[in-house]
From TrEMBL:
Protein name from the UniProt record: VWA domain-containing protein
GO molecular function: ATP binding; four-way junction helicase activity
PANTHER family for the chain: BLL5662 PROTEIN-RELATED, BLL6692 PROTEIN
Recorded GO CC terms: Holliday junction helicase complex
GO annotation, biological process: DNA recombination; DNA repair
Coiled coil spans: 97-124
Organism in which the protein naturally occurs: Flintibacter hominis
UniProt xrefs under Pfam families: VWA_CoxE
Length: 398
């Protein structure tokens, strides 16, 4: 049954064994798929996919093989065609403060219920309104509008206010070139174990492989071998941008903090926060409270230079914040702008990388200017599985 589906999975790199395939057949025979197409999808993924990183490959194979099977989408293709037309301009957009305040009062559960009701009622295209699913308006559903909270339907993310995207594929983010989520951080950080250094101590750890090899070479007479212990000696200083445009990535950055702090891959970890760029103060919590801050000079003077420095931020701000003396040092001869502080950090800590959750801006020369200036100073890596792995390799190069 569905043998071609098995071959398609294998063709696309999923190592599905005959035992796993027979387990699927047995599970279907017992009705574990609940006699539904959705249940069959979840059953297949549960039994045939071994890693979260393969979820997207499985999704693409599943959609390709069962493309002709009818199933009900959350959002109709007709509506998506309405909402994805680039020629619809923003002439309709106007700020409606009263409607914005009203939208903020809706809970996410209420918005979900309202979307379902609108989908049942709506029969034609709407743009610039405040009620129907459309574009460039104040409705909580649609895209390219001005509502402070809602569900994006179609289109591209612009203002990053939606709390979810209707019809979005849930497991697409497990691709290695996509932005990380909580589970992917764990998958990526597990790979750091291989980068742990050999401590410069006498060989005291039992070496199983070489003991077996030398014993065999010695005619079966036991010859015990020892090796130097492997211990993680990496110490990390993590500086994270908080607030402003980084609010969109707050959940992602929280996942990064949790994964890094609990991974056990670093001997020591120190975390501070900043807003847009590092200036004369660093903060000990993402709320950036002055009472929980330290002088950046203190960090430069008291944290040893053998710490690996990781900066996390979108590198997007007004140019005068980075280059024009927005915040300076407390001394007249001290740093005069954000870039001065960044260069001091770079000079202090020889191993430094910048992780960026955002791509280079495709619009606005100001945002591109600061992004490019920082990327020229620091090795910058995207906050993806591959990007994180490459950044760690860069940090640990001796």
């Amino acid at each position: 049954m569905f043998e071609d589906f098995l071959y398609l999975l294998r063709k696309n790199g999923l190592k599905v064994s005959l035992t796993e395939w027979m387990a699927l057949v047995e599970a279907m025979d017992k009705g574990l798929h609940s006699s539904s197409f959705t249940g069959f999808y979840h059953l297949c993924r549960c039994l045939l996919v071994k890693s979260e990183a393969d979820f997207d490959t499985f999704d693409r194979c599943f959609l390709e093989y069962f493309k002709d099977v009818p199933f009900q989408q959350e959002v109709s293709q007709e509506l998506l065609d309405w909402l994805n037309r680039p020629e619809v301009l923003s002439d309709y957009a106007s700020w409606d403060e009263e409607q914005a305040l009203k939208n903020l009062g809706f809970s996410e559960e209420e918005i979900e219920r309202m979307l379902k009701e609108r989908m049942e009622e709506q029969t034609e295209e709407h743009n610039g309104g405040r009620y129907w699913v459309g574009t460039h308006g104040m409705s909580t559903f649609g895209n390219s509008g001005l509502s402070p909270k809602g569900i994006r339907v179609g289109g591209q993310s612009m203002y990053r206010r939606a709390f979810r995207v209707a019809g979005e594929r849930k497991f697409r983010d497990f691709r290695r070139d996509n932005t990380l989520d909580t589970r992917q951080f764990q998958v990526a950080l597990r790979k750091l174990r291989q980068f742990s250094g050999l401590v410069d101590l006498p060989p005291t750890e039992f070496d199983v492989d070489n003991t077996i090899k030398d014993t065999a070479d010695n005619g079966g007479v036991l010859k015990v071998r020892y090796k130097r212990p492997r211990e993680n000696t990496v110490k990390v200083l993590l500086l994270m941008d908080s607030g402003g445009s980084m609010d969109y990535y707050s959940q992602l950055c929280s996942a990064l903090f949790q994964a890094v702090s609990k991974s056990g891959h670093f001997k020591d970890l120190k975390v501070y926060y900043f807003h847009n760029c590092v200036y004369s103060r660093l903060y000990q919590d993402p709320m950036l409270m002055s009472r929980n801050s330290v002088q950046t000079d203190w960090v430069l003077s008291n944290i040893p230079s053998d710490y690996k420095l990781i900066l996390v931020g979108d590198a997007q701000m007004a140019p005068h914040e980075l280059l024009g003396g927005y915040y300076g040092g407390s001394r007249e001869d001290g740093p005069k702008c954000g870039m001065d502080w960044l260069r001091l950090l770079k000079g202090r800590f020889g191993h430094t990388v910048w992780l960026n959750p955002s791509e280079r801006p495709g619009w606005g020369q100001y945002w591109c200017q600061t992004y490019d200036a920082i990327s020229q100073e620091f090795p910058m890596f995207p906050l993806t599985v591959d990007g994180l792995e490459e950044a760690m390799k860069k940090l640990l190069v001796r």
